[in-house]
């Protein structure tokens, strides 16, 4: 009887320690539920608006996740360019569980919905496509941005990640280019400049480049994002506001 009691206490203690470790791991991330970042956007000289925010937690197949959102809208003449992406990210493993995307560009309309199964290293799209993932901690194009926020490395260094859920879209190369000060409507920031090279034959006809200026502090906020939207052109997003619920909003220097 005493042996059983001691065993039970040991199991309970281990579970408590494991739970605390998981909580600390999530807390250590530079983002959390409630973060909301608003951006002024420019595409072909036309103004637009972008928003990144985190909702949740949302349970996906028994796993608590952060529901990551990115919305961008701009009008180009009589037409509207819009992109809406949602990723369900397990913050403990930094593994995506589900991804959805809806694009409306000048000459194209695209919809994507994918279920990811990290433990099984596979994925399945709603259009019937399916494949094997190169890792048990897969990412999609939106959750990859949040993953990049967790990285730290020396300038002029290049990191390789085989983390995209679709093996044909790996590797992703992340290069730390240096540091620069960026002035935005939300304030002036010392930033780390990061270049991400992604493989995406459908969108970029081979390789695409996304450049981030990320605040050089524990917040790791993307202050400026520059990329290309297919059929629309070069897009620059500049931070306009970080909402009051943003993890680090109280520390943003407004100059």
Secondary structure elements and their pairing?
Blueprint: H1 2-27, E1 36-43, E2 46-60, E3 63-76, E4 79-90, E5 95-104, E6 109-117, E7 122-125, E8 130-132, H2 141-148, E9 157-161, E10 172-184, E11 187-200, H3 201-204, E12 206-215, E13 222-229, E14 233-242
Antiparallel strand pairs: 1-2, 1-14, 2-3, 3-4, 4-5, 5-6, 6-7, 7-8, 9-10, 10-11, 11-12, 12-13, 13-14
In words, what does this structure look like?
The chain is mostly beta strands. The chain has one domain. The chain is 15% helix and 53% strand. Strands 8-7-6-5-4-3-2-1-14-13-12-11-10-9 form a 14-stranded antiparallel sheet. The chain is globular, with a radius of gyration of 20 Å.
Task: Give the amount of beta strand, in percent.
Answer: over 45%
Instruction: State the share of residues found in helices, binned by percent.
Output: 10-25%
Euclidean distance between termini CA atoms: 67 Å
State the low-pLDDT regions, or none: 1-26, 249-255
Order of helices and strands: HEEEEEEEEHEEEHEEE
How large is the count of helical segments? 3
Describe the strand arrangement of the main beta sheet, using strand numbers: 8-7-6-5-4-3-2-1-14-13-12-11-10-9
Strand segment count: 14
Q: Which secondary-structure class do the elements indicate?
A: mainly beta
Sketch the major β-sheet. 14 strands, antiparallel
Cα-atom radius of gyration: 20 Å
The overall number of domains is: 1
The global form is: globular
Mean pLDDT: 83
